[in-house]
Structure formats: C-alpha cells, structure tokens
Design brief:
By secondary structure, the chain is an all-beta fold. The protein has one domain (2-21, 29-80). Helices cover 0% and strands 52% of the residues. The chain is built from no helices and seven strands. It has strands spanning 2-4, 16-21, 28-36, 39-44, 52-57, 63-70, 73-80. Strands 1-2-3-4-5-6-7 form a seven-stranded antiparallel sheet, with no helix packed on it. A hairpin with a 2-residue loop joins strand 3 and strand 4 (39-44). The protein is globular, with a radius of gyration of 15 Å. It starts with a strand and ends in an 8-residue tail after the last strand.
Length: 88
C-alpha cells in the first residue's frame, strides 16, 4: 500500500508512505518517500534512523540505480523496466 496517510476525519499527510505487510511473520514495515528531480529517497520508518535508499532514475524512466544504507551495512542495486508487451 502506498499513498498519503489519512486518519479518520483528518486531512491526508503531506508525505507519501508505504506499508509492507509480511504474511510470513506478521511484520508491518513502513517507508517514507521523497522525490526531488530524478533522485528518489526512501527511508525505513523515520528519517532519523539513518536507514535509507537513494536512487537516480535515468532520463527515459526505464531504469534506476542506487543503494540502501544503514548503520553497519548496505547494498547497491540497479533496476530496469521490463516491457510488459507480450507478457501474459
């Protein structure tokens, strides 16, 4: 689920959030998103935790690459859009 948080009777949040529900172990994980130009930043739970991802989206919006980092670790990645034409 991704979008603006909205409590009953309150306006939606200015920030965009997502929540991941793990059916394996019952965890719920929250992420905060920000987009600035071609730079996407995603924080796990809270900006102050220093657990985040930064990625740059290429000019054709067909790929992005970046890295997750957290205290004591992290990893780099590259994601490419797969053309869904012909995929059942």
């Amino acid at each position: 689920m991704i979008g603006h948080l909205a409590k009953v009777g309150a306006p939606p949040s200015a920030q965009v959030w997502s929540r991941f529900y793990s059916f394996h172990d019952g965890l719920t994980l929250d992420y905060l998103y920000e987009m600035e130009g071609d730079l996407l930043r995603v924080w796990f739970e809270d900006k102050s935790l220093n657990n985040f991802m930064e990625a740059r989206i290429n000019s054709s919006s067909s790929a992005f690459e970046g890295a997750w980092q957290w205290p004591g670790g992290g990893y780099a990645f590259r994601a490419t859009l797969i053309d869904p034409v012909g995929v059942p």
